[in-house]
Amino acid sequence: MAGATYDGNLLAGPLAEVFAAEVTVAHARCAGCGRDSVVAELAVYGPDPGLVARCPGCSDVLLRLVRTPDATWLDLRGTAALRLPT
Amino acid sequence: MSIVTRGFRGRREGADDRLPPGQYLTHDFPVLSAGPTPVVSRDEWTFTVRSEGGERRTWSWAELTALPVEEVTVDIHCVTRWSRLDTVWRGVSLDALLEDVESAADFALVHSHGGYTTNLPLEDLLDGQAWIAFEHDGDDLSPEHGGPARLLVPHLYFWKSAKWVSGIDLLVQDEPGFWEQLGYHDYGDPWREQRYQGD
Ligand SMILES: [Zn+2]
Questions:
Q1: Which CATH number describes the domain made up of B42-192?
Q2: Domain ranges of chain B
Q3: Which residues, numbered 104 to 133 in chain B, qualify as contacts with chain A under a Cβ-Cβ cut-off of 8 Å?
Protein backbone atom coordinates (compact mmCIF):
# COMPACT_ATOMS: atom_id res chain seq x y z
CA MET A 1 0.00 0.00 0.00
CA ALA A 2 1.52 3.31 -1.05
CA GLY A 3 2.86 5.42 1.79
CA ALA A 4 3.03 2.75 4.48
CA THR A 5 5.94 3.63 6.70
CA TYR A 6 6.78 0.06 7.66
CA ASP A 7 5.66 -3.50 7.23
CA GLY A 8 4.22 -5.77 9.88
CA ASN A 9 7.63 -6.82 11.17
CA LEU A 10 7.70 -3.60 13.16
CA LEU A 11 4.93 -5.07 15.31
CA ALA A 12 7.16 -7.89 16.54
CA GLY A 13 8.64 -6.12 19.56
CA PRO A 14 5.54 -4.32 20.84
CA LEU A 15 3.30 -7.34 20.34
CA ALA A 16 5.77 -9.68 22.02
CA GLU A 17 4.87 -7.92 25.25
CA VAL A 18 1.24 -8.84 24.74
CA PHE A 19 1.47 -12.24 23.09
CA ALA A 20 4.01 -14.85 24.04
CA ALA A 21 3.69 -16.46 20.61
CA GLU A 22 5.51 -15.22 17.53
CA VAL A 23 2.71 -13.12 16.10
CA THR A 24 4.25 -11.95 12.86
CA VAL A 25 3.66 -15.46 11.45
CA ALA A 26 0.07 -15.47 12.66
CA HIS A 27 -2.75 -15.00 10.19
CA ALA A 28 -5.21 -12.15 10.67
CA ARG A 29 -8.62 -12.15 9.01
CA CYS A 30 -9.89 -8.71 8.03
CA ALA A 31 -13.29 -7.94 9.55
CA GLY A 32 -13.99 -5.70 6.57
CA CYS A 33 -13.25 -7.78 3.48
CA GLY A 34 -12.46 -11.18 4.93
CA ARG A 35 -8.95 -11.34 3.47
CA ASP A 36 -6.51 -13.57 5.31
CA SER A 37 -3.09 -11.92 5.77
CA VAL A 38 0.07 -12.97 7.53
CA VAL A 39 0.66 -10.29 10.19
CA ALA A 40 4.14 -9.55 8.81
CA GLU A 41 2.51 -8.56 5.49
CA LEU A 42 0.19 -5.92 6.95
CA ALA A 43 0.69 -2.28 5.94
CA VAL A 44 1.79 -0.48 9.10
CA TYR A 45 1.71 3.27 9.76
CA GLY A 46 3.33 5.07 12.66
CA PRO A 47 5.00 4.63 15.02
CA ASP A 48 3.51 7.87 16.45
CA PRO A 49 0.97 8.69 17.84
CA GLY A 50 0.47 4.90 17.62
CA LEU A 51 0.92 1.90 15.33
CA VAL A 52 -1.86 1.28 12.82
CA ALA A 53 -1.87 -1.98 10.85
CA ARG A 54 -4.09 -2.09 7.78
CA CYS A 55 -5.38 -4.80 5.48
CA PRO A 56 -3.32 -5.00 2.25
CA GLY A 57 -6.57 -5.75 0.42
CA CYS A 58 -9.07 -3.10 1.51
CA SER A 59 -6.93 -0.80 3.74
CA ASP A 60 -9.29 -1.18 6.70
CA VAL A 61 -7.66 -0.97 10.13
CA LEU A 62 -6.97 -4.44 11.58
CA LEU A 63 -5.00 -3.43 14.63
CA ARG A 64 -4.02 -0.34 16.60
CA LEU A 65 -1.43 -0.24 19.32
CA VAL A 66 -0.59 2.71 21.57
CA ARG A 67 1.96 2.77 24.34
CA THR A 68 1.31 5.40 26.99
CA PRO A 69 3.64 5.94 29.97
CA ASP A 70 1.64 3.49 32.08
CA ALA A 71 -0.18 1.18 29.67
CA THR A 72 -0.21 -0.59 26.33
CA TRP A 73 -3.48 -0.27 24.43
CA LEU A 74 -4.33 -2.85 21.78
CA ASP A 75 -7.43 -2.54 19.61
CA LEU A 76 -8.27 -5.54 17.42
CA ARG A 77 -11.84 -4.67 16.45
CA GLY A 78 -10.91 -4.81 12.76
CA THR A 79 -9.50 -8.32 13.10
CA ALA A 80 -12.18 -10.96 12.74
CA ALA A 81 -9.79 -13.69 13.84
CA LEU A 82 -6.14 -14.16 14.64
CA ARG A 83 -4.79 -17.63 13.88
CA LEU A 84 -1.60 -18.52 15.72
CA PRO A 85 0.12 -21.69 14.44
CA THR A 86 1.14 -24.04 17.23
CA MET B 1 -14.39 36.80 -1.00
CA SER B 2 -13.93 38.91 2.10
CA ILE B 3 -10.75 38.61 4.07
CA VAL B 4 -10.49 39.02 7.79
CA THR B 5 -7.13 38.85 9.47
CA ARG B 6 -7.20 37.50 12.95
CA GLY B 7 -3.94 36.68 14.63
CA PHE B 8 -2.87 35.16 17.89
CA ARG B 9 0.28 37.21 18.20
CA GLY B 10 -0.40 38.37 21.73
CA ARG B 11 2.89 37.30 23.18
CA ARG B 12 5.97 38.19 21.19
CA GLU B 13 8.59 37.36 23.79
CA GLY B 14 11.10 34.56 23.33
CA ALA B 15 10.03 31.27 21.81
CA ASP B 16 10.45 29.60 25.21
CA ASP B 17 7.36 31.38 26.52
CA ARG B 18 5.36 30.03 23.64
CA LEU B 19 6.41 26.40 24.00
CA PRO B 20 4.06 24.30 26.17
CA PRO B 21 5.70 21.92 28.66
CA GLY B 22 7.53 18.96 27.10
CA GLN B 23 7.57 20.46 23.59
CA TYR B 24 10.53 21.34 21.35
CA LEU B 25 10.64 23.84 18.52
CA THR B 26 10.88 22.66 14.92
CA HIS B 27 10.89 24.49 11.61
CA ASP B 28 9.95 21.38 9.62
CA PHE B 29 6.38 20.25 9.20
CA PRO B 30 6.53 16.55 10.15
CA VAL B 31 3.91 14.30 8.55
CA LEU B 32 2.23 11.76 10.82
CA SER B 33 -0.18 9.40 9.16
CA ALA B 34 -2.36 6.57 10.33
CA GLY B 35 -3.19 5.37 6.84
CA PRO B 36 -2.88 6.01 3.12
CA THR B 37 -3.38 9.60 2.03
CA PRO B 38 -6.94 9.95 0.70
CA VAL B 39 -7.21 11.48 -2.75
CA VAL B 40 -10.11 13.93 -2.69
CA SER B 41 -10.58 16.55 -5.39
CA ARG B 42 -12.12 19.92 -4.65
CA ASP B 43 -14.93 19.06 -7.06
CA GLU B 44 -16.01 16.05 -5.05
CA TRP B 45 -15.17 17.50 -1.62
CA THR B 46 -18.10 18.17 0.71
CA PHE B 47 -18.39 19.09 4.35
CA THR B 48 -21.41 17.90 6.32
CA VAL B 49 -22.58 18.92 9.79
CA ARG B 50 -25.06 16.55 11.40
CA SER B 51 -26.91 17.77 14.46
CA GLU B 52 -27.93 15.55 17.37
CA GLY B 53 -31.48 15.57 15.96
CA GLY B 54 -30.31 14.22 12.61
CA GLU B 55 -30.53 17.51 10.71
CA ARG B 56 -27.84 17.64 8.01
CA ARG B 57 -26.21 20.64 6.40
CA THR B 58 -23.71 20.11 3.57
CA TRP B 59 -21.35 22.58 1.89
CA SER B 60 -19.63 22.09 -1.45
CA TRP B 61 -16.17 23.50 -2.09
CA ALA B 62 -17.71 26.49 -3.88
CA GLU B 63 -20.10 27.09 -0.98
CA LEU B 64 -17.31 26.84 1.56
CA THR B 65 -15.02 29.29 -0.17
CA ALA B 66 -17.88 31.75 -0.74
CA LEU B 67 -17.99 32.25 3.04
CA PRO B 68 -15.69 34.87 4.65
CA VAL B 69 -12.11 33.60 4.46
CA GLU B 70 -9.83 34.42 7.36
CA GLU B 71 -6.06 34.41 7.54
CA VAL B 72 -4.71 33.30 10.90
CA THR B 73 -1.20 33.07 12.32
CA VAL B 74 -1.02 30.46 15.07
CA ASP B 75 1.36 28.22 16.98
CA ILE B 76 0.72 24.48 16.64
CA HIS B 77 1.70 21.72 19.05
CA CYS B 78 1.87 18.01 18.21
CA VAL B 79 1.47 15.38 20.92
CA THR B 80 4.68 13.79 19.58
CA ARG B 81 6.37 16.87 21.15
CA TRP B 82 7.16 19.14 18.22
CA SER B 83 5.79 22.67 18.04
CA ARG B 84 5.83 25.18 15.21
CA LEU B 85 5.38 28.91 15.83
CA ASP B 86 3.67 31.51 13.63
CA THR B 87 2.19 29.11 11.08
CA VAL B 88 -0.03 30.91 8.57
CA TRP B 89 -3.33 29.46 7.41
CA ARG B 90 -6.34 30.57 5.41
CA GLY B 91 -9.74 29.07 5.89
CA VAL B 92 -13.32 29.51 7.02
CA SER B 93 -14.17 29.89 10.68
CA LEU B 94 -16.37 27.17 12.17
CA ASP B 95 -18.49 30.04 13.54
CA ALA B 96 -19.54 30.84 9.97
CA LEU B 97 -20.41 27.20 9.27
CA LEU B 98 -22.22 26.45 12.52
CA GLU B 99 -24.18 29.69 12.95
CA ASP B 100 -27.21 28.35 11.08
CA VAL B 101 -27.17 24.92 12.72
CA GLU B 102 -29.70 24.40 15.48
CA SER B 103 -28.10 22.38 18.24
CA ALA B 104 -28.03 21.92 21.99
CA ALA B 105 -25.09 19.49 21.74
CA ASP B 106 -22.04 19.79 23.97
CA PHE B 107 -19.67 17.58 21.98
CA ALA B 108 -18.38 17.16 18.46
CA LEU B 109 -17.02 14.13 16.65
CA VAL B 110 -14.99 15.18 13.61
CA HIS B 111 -14.88 12.82 10.61
CA SER B 112 -12.30 12.59 7.85
CA HIS B 113 -12.03 10.94 4.47
CA GLY B 114 -10.21 7.68 5.12
CA GLY B 115 -12.09 7.02 8.35
CA TYR B 116 -10.17 9.08 10.91
CA THR B 117 -12.18 10.64 13.74
CA THR B 118 -11.44 12.88 16.71
CA ASN B 119 -13.64 14.26 19.49
CA LEU B 120 -13.69 17.56 21.32
CA PRO B 121 -16.18 19.81 23.10
CA LEU B 122 -18.32 21.80 20.67
CA GLU B 123 -17.45 25.07 22.42
CA ASP B 124 -13.82 24.59 21.38
CA LEU B 125 -14.89 24.84 17.74
CA LEU B 126 -16.60 28.21 18.31
CA ASP B 127 -15.69 31.81 19.12
CA GLY B 128 -12.83 32.14 16.66
CA GLN B 129 -10.95 29.05 17.85
CA ALA B 130 -11.31 26.72 14.86
CA TRP B 131 -11.28 26.81 11.06
CA ILE B 132 -11.70 24.63 7.99
CA ALA B 133 -8.29 25.48 6.54
CA PHE B 134 -7.35 25.04 2.87
CA GLU B 135 -4.16 27.11 2.52
CA HIS B 136 -0.93 26.92 4.47
CA ASP B 137 2.02 29.31 4.13
CA GLY B 138 0.51 30.79 0.98
CA ASP B 139 -0.05 27.52 -0.87
CA ASP B 140 -3.00 25.21 -1.33
CA LEU B 141 -2.94 22.65 1.47
CA SER B 142 -1.07 19.59 0.17
CA PRO B 143 -2.69 16.15 0.47
CA GLU B 144 -0.01 14.97 2.93
CA HIS B 145 -0.97 17.82 5.27
CA GLY B 146 -4.69 17.19 4.91
CA GLY B 147 -5.67 18.88 1.65
CA PRO B 148 -7.97 19.81 0.15
CA ALA B 149 -9.05 20.94 3.64
CA ARG B 150 -8.34 20.11 7.25
CA LEU B 151 -9.70 21.18 10.58
CA LEU B 152 -7.48 23.68 12.41
CA VAL B 153 -7.91 23.86 16.20
CA PRO B 154 -4.53 25.25 17.25
CA HIS B 155 -5.23 25.59 20.98
CA LEU B 156 -5.43 21.77 21.30
CA TYR B 157 -2.83 19.13 20.40
CA PHE B 158 -2.64 18.82 16.65
CA TRP B 159 -4.21 15.36 16.40
CA LYS B 160 -7.51 17.19 17.01
CA SER B 161 -6.90 19.20 13.80
CA ALA B 162 -8.17 16.38 11.60
CA LYS B 163 -6.68 16.14 8.12
CA TRP B 164 -8.99 15.54 5.10
CA VAL B 165 -11.99 16.70 7.14
CA SER B 166 -15.35 15.59 5.76
CA GLY B 167 -17.80 16.49 8.49
CA ILE B 168 -18.75 16.97 12.11
CA ASP B 169 -21.37 15.17 14.17
CA LEU B 170 -22.82 17.23 17.01
CA LEU B 171 -23.44 14.95 19.99
CA VAL B 172 -25.15 15.16 23.36
CA GLN B 173 -22.66 12.62 24.76
CA ASP B 174 -18.92 12.58 24.12
CA GLU B 175 -17.73 9.79 21.82
CA PRO B 176 -14.03 8.96 21.64
CA GLY B 177 -12.27 9.33 18.29
CA PHE B 178 -9.57 7.28 16.58
CA TRP B 179 -6.75 7.99 19.05
CA GLU B 180 -8.96 8.84 22.01
CA GLN B 181 -10.20 5.21 21.93
CA LEU B 182 -6.60 4.11 22.51
CA GLY B 183 -5.62 6.13 25.57
CA TYR B 184 -5.19 9.64 24.20
CA HIS B 185 -6.84 12.49 26.06
CA ASP B 186 -10.41 13.54 25.26
CA TYR B 187 -9.50 17.24 25.46
CA GLY B 188 -5.76 17.55 24.77
CA ASP B 189 -4.71 20.96 26.09
CA PRO B 190 -0.96 21.28 25.37
CA TRP B 191 -0.50 23.86 28.16
CA ARG B 192 -1.81 21.33 30.71
CA GLU B 193 0.09 18.55 28.92
CA GLN B 194 -3.05 16.47 28.45
CA ARG B 195 -1.50 13.81 26.21
CA TYR B 196 -3.11 10.68 27.66
CA GLN B 197 -6.24 9.79 29.62
CA GLY B 198 -5.78 10.82 33.22
CA ASP B 199 -3.28 13.59 32.44
ZN1 LIG C 1 -9.66 -6.07 4.23
A1: 3.90.420.10
A2: 42-192
A3: 115
**Vertex B4: Cα angle to B40 and B166 (nearest 5):** 20
Backbone angles phi, psi at B181, to 5 degrees: -70, -15
Interchain contact, B36 vs A1, CB within 8 Å: yes
pTM to 2 decimal places:
0.90
CA dihedral A23, A60, A48, A2 (to 10 degrees): 100
User: Which residue is closest to B30 within chain A, CA to CA?
Assistant: A48
Complex ipTM more than 0.85, yes or no: yes
Inside any domain, residue A3: no
Distance from CA of A84 to the nearest CA of B (A): 24
Residue-range definition of the domain harbouring residue A69: 27-83
Looking at the complex, does the CB of residue B179 fall below 8 Å from at least one CB of chain A? yes
Q: pLDDT in tens for each of the 199 residues of chain B?
A: 445 555 444 444 566 799 999 999 999 999 998 999 999 999 999 999 999 999 999 999 999 999 999 999 999 999 999 999 999 999 999 999 999 899 999 999 999 999 999 999 999 999 999 999 999 999 999 999 999 999 999 999 999 999 999 999 999 999 999 999 999 999 999 999 999 999 9
**Count of domains for chain A:** 1
On whether residue A18 sits in a domain, the answer given is no
Which A positions 51-80 lie with beta carbon below 8 A of chain B?
52, 54, 59, 61, 64-66, 68-69, 71, 73, 75
Among the listed residues B120, B102, B100, the one whose alpha carbon sits nearest the alpha carbon of residue B111: B120
Task: Please answer whether residues A1 and A59 qualify as being in contact, where contact means their C-beta atoms are separated by less than 8 angstroms.
Answer: yes
Q: Which of A67, A73, A75 to substitute to test the interface with B, most B CBs within 10 Å?
A: A73
